[in-house]
Design goal:
Protein-Tyrosine Phosphatase, Chain A, ten-stranded mixed sheet, alpha/beta
Length: 464
């Protein structure tokens, strides 16, 4: 048990089945702490946590916090939750999940990855690269890494890789040694209010670095490049490197090519040494993610070829262009993309994979506020597909907004399109596909459940 977590005592986690909170729970258990937790739903991850030693409950009840010293929760837990209110009444220490993760990070070399898009994939790439190189990192990522079978693991090495979530401002709770910024765009305006506030938060994130820390920023992205310039202006002499296809990037990509699910590019480092970067995932956006990971690896002292070998082993993170099956000559993939820029990147990758085939997308808008703010941009991004279906908006934490429906997005889609209900979606999508085509389910909600249904519909069998 580390000195930084020993004072937490028995930790009780609210929303313990969530990807962020479950990662904290796994690390606390591995660190030797007593852990319990509650979630509203009985999900498979609860069985995994039980097997690791946690006491878990389904359904919130004040009695569940008995014996707890510290309560950990995410931003989805709101005032009025009976366990949160009981913890307040008892005077327990209450931490946001990011604060608990920061406590675990103390005494280690913190590498945090932030950005409007790409942070899950980039942090996964860094973790796997370090693991393949024998560095045995600790990591906490916003999706399971299929090759490792988990979203978090306590390693014996000094590196601690964490995905830093900007959606609620909690990425400002870390104190990293290396900070990555993949991109900065307007998003989560329900929290920030304005695009300017989003950019200001990333400036604050860069300012968390010590003077000798390293900022790794995407030079091809205007927002990330602005964060890099801001860091240099605010802390003259601080260490900043950029990556991208642009000629001014410290780590420069060139000669990119894509074939099926693979990508290749030349990657030239600050010493002018050009090496071949080969990936098992598609798209220029993943080449950029890998360039960021490579820069981190070299900063941590990895041999360049060892870093490249580790990156070549990466086969994707859960729900990031994840293969869901094939039937009748049609391949089905699932992607978490829920911002217009992410949707556009996912469809470009799908086009590379499809080759001469067509690209069909089943898209589910996520949040009423995001749909309202970016309906036109979503429609334009989806227009890159040959055929588009849209599910009703996934509300997540929000109440409906008057006049905000999937039809708002449909108005800006130039490709053939239709809005469908979930129960009819799989059959509708499968009926239009032909051998050689690619189907993608896209969105941050429960659209992911449609993948197996579509595969079953293509095969003409009842889903299992």
């Amino acid at each position: 048990m580390s000195a930084s977590t020993q004072s937490l005592g028995h930790v009780h986690l609210l929303g313990i089945a969530g990807v962020g909170v479950s990662a904290v729970a796994r690390l606390l258990l591995a660190d030797g702490l007593s852990v319990s937790g509650t979630d509203a739903k009985d999900l498979p991850v609860l069985r995994e946590l039980e097997a690791a030693g946690a006491r878990v409950h389904v359904g919130f009840d004040a009695a569940h916090i008995e014996g707890a010293d510290t309560l950990v929760l995410s931003s989805v837990i709101k005032d009025g939750n009976p366990e949160l209110e009981a913890a307040r009444a008892k005077g327990l220490t209450i931490l946001h999940r990011s604060e608990a993760l920061a406590a675990l990070m103390e005494g280690r070399t913190g590498i945090t990855v932030a950005g409007t898009h790409g942070k899950t994939t980039t942090s996964s790439m860094i973790a796997l690269m370090l693991r393949e190189a024998g560095a045995d990192p600790t990591f906490a990522i916003g999706a399971a890494l299929p090759q490792l079978g988990t979203n978090a693991e306590l390693g014996s090495g000094p590196a601690f890789v964490a995905e830093a979530d900007e959606s609620d401002g909690s990425f400002l709770n870390y104190r990293p040694r290396i900070a990555v910024v993949t991109n900065v765009e307007a998003d989560h305006l329900d929290h920030y209010g304005t695009a300017e506030a989003v950019h200001a938060a990333f400036d604050d994130y860069a300012a968390l670095l010590p003077q000798d820390g390293l900022l790794v920023a995407c030079g091809d992205d205007d927002g990330a490049a602005a964060t890099a310039r801001g860091r240099l202006a605010a802390a003259p002499g601080s260490r900043v490197v950029t990556y991208g296809f642009g000629e001014g990037s410290t780590y420069r990509l060139s000669a990119a090519s894509h074939s099926g699910l693979g990508s290749t590019a030349q990657l030239t480092g600050p010493d002018g040494d050009a090496r071949t970067l080969t990936l098992r995932v598609p798209g220029d956006h993943n080449l950029l993610n890998a360039a960021a990971a490579y820069a981190v690896g070299l900063e941590l002292g990895l041999d360049p070829e060892a870093a490249l070998t580790g990156l070549a082993a990466f086969a994707g993170a859960a729900r990031r262009f994840e293969f869901r099956g094939e039937a009748a000559g049609v391949r089905v993939y699932d992607d978490y993309a829920h911002h217009p820029t992410e949707v556009a990147a996912a469809l470009r990758a799908a086009r590379d994979v499809a080759g001469e085939g067509r690209v069909h997308v089943l898209f589910q808008p996520h949040l009423f506020s995001r749909t309202r703010d970016f309906a036109r941009e979503f429609g334009e991004a989806l227009s890159a597909a040959d055929r588009v279906w849209m599910l009703p908006i996934y509300p997540a934490r929000e109440e409906p907004l008057p006049g905000v429906t999937s039809e708002l997005v449909a108005q800006s889609v130039s490709a053939p399109h239709a809005v469908v209900q979930a129960e009819a979606a799989a059959a509708a999508v499968a009926a239009e596909a032909a051998p050689g085509d690619v189907i993608m389910t896209v969105g941050a909600g429960d659209v992911t459940a449609q993948g197996p249904l579509i595969v079953a519909a293509l095969a003409g069998v009842e889903p299992r």
